[in-house]
Specification:
The complex is a heterodimer. By secondary structure, chain A is an alpha/beta fold. Chain A contains 16 helices and twelve strands. In chain A, helix 6 crosses helix 7. By secondary structure, chain B is mostly beta strands. Helix content of chain B is about 15%, strand content about 45%. In chain B, helix 1 packs antiparallel against helix 2. The longest helix of chain B has about 40 residues. Classes of the chains: A alpha/beta, B mainly beta. The interface between A and B is small, with 11 and 9 residues.
């Protein structure tokens, strides 16, 4: 028995001595702070139980486009969890950091949770904002971030464009509609969180075009008596995407844990955390659990309406693209 | 973090109330209708929004500037040179320069035509740090040490990795560890005899660091093995002929470092080198032996064309330094070398011992702290302002060459002439150093040297009884 106990202790010590301390950097976009803070704790616990290793995850947040550029310019991200598949694409096409078929490496085109775009207005909705049309009216101050730097802002932009194209029947009409809308934007923040600050904390503007989860968070943090969510007649299915940054992870020796970190986003536990943080889960169980929380709205995808991110961004957000033409006027 | 607002919320409230008050005055006077009141309220709301937008834009601008500052390299120019530093401080590039213009004047030394103006040192120093702890230094010398401005040489060229304060590695060409750092000689314009028995720069690799919080500093490395006073970079054929490495190092102890007070800066050191050095007869470059000059850089001893280094060469050099954080400074050093030298072309080899020493001290009359690098004036020289800092200095030094060098070869010697060479020397001198500011200094030295033997001035340029030299220097450094 004594021999067995000794062997057990030696084995336990050996295992304990071999436990590794790992560190990941998750470079993400603005409104995911709260979600990943909670998720990181859950994953670290899961990984410790599975492997015995300690993993610490550092977070970096900012406008999605800016974050993608930072990674391309050398920010050592093990994983990127950005607002747009287009920003992840840039890591492949511009940065050559990941393979071009990155989206097929994880379920649901590497989008473990979704969201959409809604309006946040001040309580009582004094300007009676109901749909995208109302945002182009004279005297309505609209808050939305700069689509050149913010992924969320691109979702906003495309949602408004598609609404106008369907309602008024042409891209020219949509362009004029979006031009009018941006004429009502007094401040362009670089990211979604900055726009929320502008609207909620600085008291500027009448309507915030917002990620759904960000709007719910504002209600939760600042009081449902101060703001209201308005759901437009048409919105976009926002699919924030995730990837391991292969070249960085390989260099740092973190590929295995980085892959596991993203795969665990599809687990029941992670999907529940996503729902709790006002993201629309993709698992059946969590979707059912949080169904009552999310309003019904007609949603379209970027692929359906704009032929995918590559094409859409080239037309709208390349230098001298449609947005530059609209905003310069 | 919120940027400072253009108007505080209190100011905004007063501003809005003032507008309302102005509006109210008119309303009372004219009994405004509810519609007019509503219009006024709307105007105030719009004004409030405009002010908030201006504030927010300024806030975003400030945030943007702060973010850019985190990634933008900074450029600084000042008394320490010109520096470009990356935002994370991990990379920097420093551009520095050193220019020395000297005047030498000799009084009553039994010879003539020694007075001269010369560009003593013209160096453009490029140094910096890469990736946080890799340092480099590239220092070309232009017009080095002569009045021939066409001379160009690579003075320093090294790369160092500072892994921790306790351990680093340096490779390339840099100041030898055998003697004190060049800064220790700053009291006088020219180095004393002790430097004649030490290499100047050497080419190799060394480890270095400080232990016990600076209680002990060490350097230890392997080098080509530069001859005395030379800077080894392939020029001296003797450096490479032996196919051997010279070990060299220095250890410095600051025993009272933790005591505090002026005594805490008193340090003791000892440097040494040992290697096999083999030259060839024919010239004083290839023979691996360096002729000896006086403190005013005049030749006083030559090994000639027959002798050459041919075996072990050992140097040892203890020292003491005291830059006490006060106007007073002191440095003293001794050097002993033991070298195997072939005394004829047949390779008959004998061992000779030479030694030298010096002690120098300074006192800053204007009260500033004396440091190894010099003195930073409290009141830099400028018209209508200060006069800079003044320091008086004094030095004694000596040289003792092995008497067997002057014995006949048949008498266990090297056969060198004691009438055409000095066999030893003793020098004493005083000086005044004027530090106009951190970058410009003017130095004036007078030094008397007494030579042993060498009573026949006509035979060689270095042979004379004694020498009184007055040397002046204007130095610009940044």
């Amino acid at each position: 028995m004594r021999t067995f106990t000794s062997l057990f202790i030696i084995l336990a010590l050996a295992l304990s001595a071999s436990a590794k301390d790992l560190q990941l950097l998750n470079v993400s976009y603005d409104p995911t702070r709260e979600f990943y803070t909670e998720y990181n704790v859950a994953f670290a616990k899961y990984w410790k139980a599975k492997t015995g290793d300690n993993v610490t995850i550092k977070q970096s947040h900012g406008g999605s486009g800016k974050q993608a550029r930072s990674i391309i310019e050398g920010l050592a991200a093990d994983v990127a969890t950005l607002a747009l598949a287009g920003d992840i694409d840039a890591l492949a096409t511009v940065g050559k950091l990941i393979p071009a078929d990155w989206f097929g490496r994880l379920p649901k085109n590497s989008a473990p949770y979704t969201s959409t775009i809604v309006f946040l207005v001040r309580t009582g909705n004094p300007l009676k904002v109901k749909d995208w049309d109302d945002l182009t009216k004279a005297g309505v101050a609209v808050i939305t971030p700069n689509p050149k730097t913010s992924g969320g802002a691109q979702w906003n932009y495309f949602a408004a464009w598609e609404f106008a194209r369907r309602k008024y029947g042409s891209d020219d009409a949509a362009k004029e509609f979006v031009r009018k809308l941006y004429k009502n934007v007094p401040v362009l923040d670089s990211g979604a969180r900055g726009s929320t600050t502008t609207f909620v904390q600085r008291g500027i503007g009448d309507v915030l075009i917002s990620w759904e989860n960000e709007a719910f968070l504002a209600l939760k943090e600042f009081g449902a008596d101060k703001f209201e969510i308005v759901v437009p007649s048409l919105s976009i299915l926002a699919q924030p995407s995730v990837t391991v940054v292969d070249k960085v992870a390989k260099k740092k020796g973190t590929t295995e844990v980085a892959k596991a970190y993203l795969e665990y986003l599809y687990s029941d536990e992670a999907q529940d955390i996503a729902g709790k943080n006002f993201y629309r889960p993709t698992s059946e169980a969590a979707t059912a659990k949080y169904a009552a929380r999310f309003p019904k709205v007609e949603l379209f995808t970027i692929d359906e309406a704009f032929g995918g991110w590559t094409k859409a961004r080239k037309i709208h957000f390349a230098d001298d693209g449609t947005f530059d033409q609209i905003y310069a006027k | 973090m919120a940027a400072p607002s253009l108007l505080s919320s209190k100011s905004r409230a007063w501003f809005a109330l003032s507008l309302l008050a102005i509006g109210s005055t008119g309303i009372h006077a004219q009994q405004a209708s509810p519609d007019e009141l509503q219009t006024l309220r709307e105007q105030v709301r719009l004004l409030d929004q405009k002010v908030k937008v201006i504030e927010r834009k300024q806030e975003l601008k400030d945030e943007d500037s702060a973010a850019k500052a985190k990634t933008t390299a900074s450029v600084t120019a000042g008394a320490s040179g010109f520096t470009i530093t990356s935002a994370d401080k991990a990379f920097d590039l420093k551009l520095k320069a050193l220019a020395q213009f000297d005047s030498r004047h000799f009084l009553d030394d039994g010879a003539s035509n020694r007075d001269a103006f010369l560009l003593r040192r013209i160096r453009l120093i490029t140094a910096g740090t890469v990736a946080g702890f890799y340092d480099f230094n590239i220092t070309p010398e232009l017009g080095a040490g002569t009045n021939n401005t066409s001379t160009v040489a690579l003075w320093d060229a090294f790369f160092a990795a500072r892994f921790s304060p306790q351990f680093g590695v340096r490779v390339g060409k840099f100041a030898s560890a055998v003697g004190l750092e060049p800064g220790a000689n700053r009291h006088f314009i020219e180095s004393p005899f002790v430097n004649m028995l030490q290499p100047n720069r050497d080419l190799g690799a060394e480890i270095f660091g400080a232990l016990g919080g600076g209680f002990v500093e060490y350097r230890l490395g392997a080098f080509i093995g530069a001859a005395n006073t030379t800077t080894s970079f392939g020029g001296a054929a003797a450096d490479n002929l032996d196919g051997d490495r010279t070990l060299a190092g220095r250890i410095t102890i600051t025993p009272f470092k933790k005591v505090g007070g002026v005594i805490s800066k008193l340090s003791f050191g000892i440097g040494a080198s040992r290697g096999n050095e083999v030259g060839t007869a024919g010239s004083n470059i290839s023979n691996g032996l360096s002729n000896i000059a006086s403190n005013s850089q005049q030749a006083i001893f030559s090994y000639g064309a027959v002798l050459y280094s041919n075996g072990d060469h050992t140097r040892i050099s203890p020292s003491v330094e005291w830059y006490a954080g006060t106007p007073f400074s002191l440095a003293a050093e001794y050097a002993l070398e033991k070298q195997d030298i072939a005394v004829n072309v047949a390779g008959l080899t004998r061992t000779f011992n030479n030694s030298a020493w010096r002690a120098s001290a300074g006192w800053v009359l204007t009260g500033e702290e004396a440091t190894k690098a010099g003195v930073t004036p409290k009141n830099p020289f400028a018209k209508g302002a200060g006069w800079g800092a003044f320091e008086v200095v004094a030095r004694v030094s000596g040289l003792s060459l092995d008497s067997k060098l002057f014995h006949a070869v048949s008498d266990d010697g090297a056969g060198l002439g004691s009438t055409t060479n000095a066999t030893g020397a003793f020098a004493y001198g005083v000086g005044v150093n004027w530090y106009l500011n951190r970058n410009v200094r003017f130095l004036l030295n007078a030094e008397q040297t007494q030579f042993d033997d060498a009573k026949t001035p006509a035979a060689q340029i270095g042979a004379r009884d004694d020498e009184l030299a007055v040397i002046a220097r204007v130095q610009l450094s940044f």
